[in-house]
Each structure stands twice: as C-alpha cells, then as structure tokens.
Write a structure and sequence with these properties.
The longest helix has 17 residues, at 110-126. The two termini are 26 Å apart. By secondary structure, the chain is mainly alpha-helical. The protein has one domain: Arc Repressor Mutant, subunit A (Orthogonal Bundle). It contains 7 helices and 2 strands, in the order αααββαααα. The chain has helices at 5-20, 28-35, 39-51, 76-82, 110-126, 129-133, 150-153, and strands at 55-58, 64-67. It has a two-stranded antiparallel sheet. The chain is elongated.
Length: 156
C-alpha cells in the first residue's frame, strides 16, 4: 500500500503548522517554502482541512492558518481522512459488499488486505499531531527496516 502525496503532504504541512504557529497564524506560502510543496496544492488541502474543522483561517495582513484545536487532539488519521485519502489496501471499493473480481467476488487475499487496512488505521489513529511535532511517534524504531541487521530478514 502506498500513501499518496495528498495524505503525505497534508500531514507534513500540518506538522509544520503545529510546530510553527505558537498561537500566531502561519501563511501557506511559508509552509509551502519550508516543506517544498506547491502553494496551490496546499490551498486545496487546507480548504478540505478547514471544512473538516482541523484548521481555521485568519484573513487579512498577518493572516494564515491556525490549528482549530490542540495538536494532542488531532490524530494523523483525521488529517489523512480529511483530505479524502482512503486508508485501504484492498482493490475493492471501500464499504462495498462487492469484491474486486470481474464476477464481483472477493479475491482469496481480501481478508488479509482488509485486516492490514484496519491495522494501518488503528496505528494512524494512535498517533497525534503533537507526537509528530515532538518526534515522539509511538512504536518507532529507526533501525527496524535496516537490511544491515541479518536477524530481521532471517528465516526462522
């Protein structure tokens, strides 16, 4: 499963906003420059984040965006879902009783991918924006995918 740029950029921009706002509005132009994201793309994302009640906008000189609530109360899953990013690893349409096969049946691995989707959602729901801003992501192990560690990829 691959998270699209929409979800990744939304989380990056929100982490920037959470780190920089300190009670003052932050302009999208500043976020775009720091995170190297297109300003017009951020405008689209922040429109969706505002509609979802995650950010609020301040108009006029010195305007920009603020978090609509404390960063500890914003889950990463909230951000991703606000920008319409599906959290699914199946080929099937989310919420549909029909499968992805031409006969509308489910493939043999459907339950595996559906379970993975659920685990991803649970994990992203357990991580708050505050965790990301403070670099305290639960369960993170920077060396977990290191191929230099033969015990990780060794057969049991």
């Amino acid at each position: 499963m691959k998270l699209s740029t929409k979800g990744r950029y939304a989380v990056m921009a929100m982490a920037d906003l959470g780190s920089k706002s300190q009670g003052s509005p932050v302009s999208l132009a500043d976020i775009a420059e720091r995170q190297e994201i297109s300003l017009s793309y951020l405008e689209q994302l922040f429109g969706k984040l505002r509609k979802s009640g995650i950010v609020k906008s301040v108009r006029g000189p010195g305007g920009g965006y603020l978090l609509a609530r404390e960063s500890a109360g914003i889950r990463v899953s909230d951000i991703i879902m606000a920008v319409d990013e599906p959290l699914t690893a199946t080929r099937c349409s989310s919420g549909s009783s029909e499968g992805c096969r031409s006969d509308k049946g489910r493939c043999l691995t459907h339950d595996l991918w559906q379970s993975l989707s659920h685990q991803i959602y649970l994990y992203l729901s357990s991580v708050t924006l505050q965790d990301v801003c403070e670099r305290k992501v639960p369960g993170s192990r920077p060396d977990i995918f290191s191929q230099d560690d033969p015990t990780i990829f060794a057969a049991e």
